[in-house]
Amino acid sequence: MGRARTEREIGKTTAAAAAQGGGAVNAGPGVSVDEAGNLVIAAATLARAGIESPADSLVEVTANGVRIVADSLRKVYVEATNVCDLACVTCLQRAWDEVPGHMPLERYARLLDGLPDNPSAPVTLAFSGFGEPLMHPDIIEMIRRARARGLGVEIVTNGTRLSTGMADTLAALGVAQVTVSVDGGDEAAFRSMRQASLRQTLEGIAALRDVRRRRKIPLHIGIACVATRKNAHSLPALLRTARDLEVDFVSISNLVAHTAEMAEETLYERTAFLTNPAPEAWRPRVQLARIDRNDVTRSLLQAIEGDVPVAPPPATDVGSWRNHCRFAHEGMLAVTSDGRVAPCLSLMRSHTEFVNGQAKTVTGVAVGHVDEAPLGQIWRAPAFSEFRRRVRAFDFPPCFGCGPCPLTETNQDDCYGSQAPVCSECLWAQGIVLCP
């Protein structure tokens, strides 16, 4: 697949492309077709896309043609700790019995040393997981070490420890993005979800905004919100607050229900069904152009949203509209505080989810351990590479369309005979739950 010199063959063109002439054909900047009909891409062009070697290249055949992207490790979710100072009613910690603890600095150093060396596309570390990263006693040192290596750093926090001093320190270290979990737009809704004060969390966001203004730096500030029946009424107020605080983005996700009581709070029964059946089978299906929502169009939009499925417009990539695993497609994995390497956040730990009206036992998956092998080597392991390939293809049954089934009581089997773990009911891949 590779060539010496400065070019690499990525694949074959169609016969029509090969017949364009006897010599090489220029297909665009850094791309050509040789005499044998091979598509040749210059090494410099691949490097700009973060592809350092042929092993990093991923050829995806889609309805719109062929995409060549990098199958390289680009983002690592690092669970610095699974200790938290809140007791949120939606948290996965309510569904496990693991021992709380921090990731030792020695283990973190091995994690850093095991990252692939790709100067043109450095890895981003996202301090997240199922704990509060700012509770780790050495979190600032962990960030400092990552930044010293030229790595990007993001943090997902509950905001309780975002003092003015902490905000200034994070900004000085060059943290690129801070996402604050805010599950409610007023004090009562927030407290019902997080058992804490909304005011303190908003003060932390304001501290980030103020330090960004003062330092004049491109620090991205976001809000992540879990929407439920209990707090949905307060979310318009949250959006207004986000605008006043000059927040860059607000991510509103659905709930992952770990108890039967929380399952009653979900907001995606109908939309979950629509994520699986093929749009061409819908009767009728509506293809909706982008139009304003105002007094004139509101009744039309409400009728569409309430009564008929909406197909993505032609400008939308259907592959990213449904059944799309960001971890498999975008080069991401997760590391628990005790060093286990998981393919995604959902598979970090075994737990119970209530999906499609029934309890589902999700068995966690460890594809390696940072104490035993470098992350770059774990990423390239044949079994893990094959798992990502299967998830990208997403050749799983349409379980949401079928409804509850004995085979979906776990993530170990399905009616297609897929190899475990099966992702047919993954809420993240359906776009129902959003990655932080």
Strand content: 15-25%
Q: What is the rounded distance between the termini? A: 36 Å
Largest sheet: 9 strands, mixed
Spatial sequence of strands, sheet with the most strands: 12-11-10-9-8-7-15-16-19
Average pLDDT, rounded to a whole number, is: 85
> Radius of gyration, Cα only, in angstroms?
23 Å
Shape call: globular
Please characterize this protein's 3D structure.
This protein is an alpha/beta fold. The chain has helices at residues 15-18, 43-48, 105-113, 139-148, 164-173, 187-194, 198-215, 235-244, 260-263, 269-274, 298-307, 318-321, 326-329, 375-380, 382-393, 399-402, and strands spanning 7-12, 25-28, 31-33, 38-42, 57-62, 65-70, 75-78, 124-127, 152-157, 177-181, 220-226, 249-253, 286-287, 310-311, 332-335, 340-342, 351-355, 358-362, 368-369. The strands form five sheets. A nine-stranded mixed sheet has the order 12-11-10-9-8-7-15-16-19. Strands 1-4-3-2 form a four-stranded antiparallel sheet. Helix 8 links the parallel strand 11 (220-226) and strand 12 (249-253). The two termini are 36 Å apart.
